[in-house]
Design brief:
DUF1492; 138 residues; RNA polymerase sigma-70 region 4 domain-containing protein; single chain; mainly alpha; RNA_pol_sigma_r3/r4-like
């Protein structure tokens, strides 16, 4: 795996979690609109589940998925941060942390570090080479 792909894993997992959180909100909103039919009866010994029950089960399952993904994200960020801390240049470390741990845009990174975008991309290229060396030694 190339350095940029390795570092970007956390960004993509974070986006995946955010998508699931949006889906959870949509399901919660939908569950509040579901009506319960109290006239349903058991027929032939089959258990009939209500739309409300189905919605709640889906919400619970999605909540568990989100929690599992958050656990993975925390572990992944910790691992990536350990790798970033092995980079010798502090400027490269700060850039990598801002971009791949904090998820900041290139404009925000450039502004916070006081560099223009082309300088940020040059430092980023240097940092990626260092990370690639570190990951190939692991």
């Amino acid at each position: 795996m190339k350095a940029k792909e390795y570092l970007s894993q956390a960004i993509w997992l974070d986006k995946k979690i955010n998508n699931k959180l949006e889906e959870k909100q949509r399901l919660e909103s939908l569950a509040q609109k579901v009506t319960v039919d109290i006239t349903q009866e058991k027929v032939c010994g089959k258990k009939i589940t209500s739309p409300m029950e189905n919605a709640i089960v889906k919400l619970i399952d999605l909540s568990h998925e989100i929690n599992d993904d958050i656990d993975k994200l925390v572990d992944l960020k910790r691992e990536i941060l350990e790798t970033i801390n092995k980079v010798n240049d502090i400027t490269c470390q700060v850039l990598l942390e801002m971009r791949y741990i904090c998820g900041k845009s290139w404009e925000d990174v450039a502004s916070a570090m006081g560099y223009d975008r082309s300088t940020i991309f040059r430092i980023h290229g240097k940092a990626l080479k260092e990370v690639q060396k570190i990951k190939s030694c692991d």
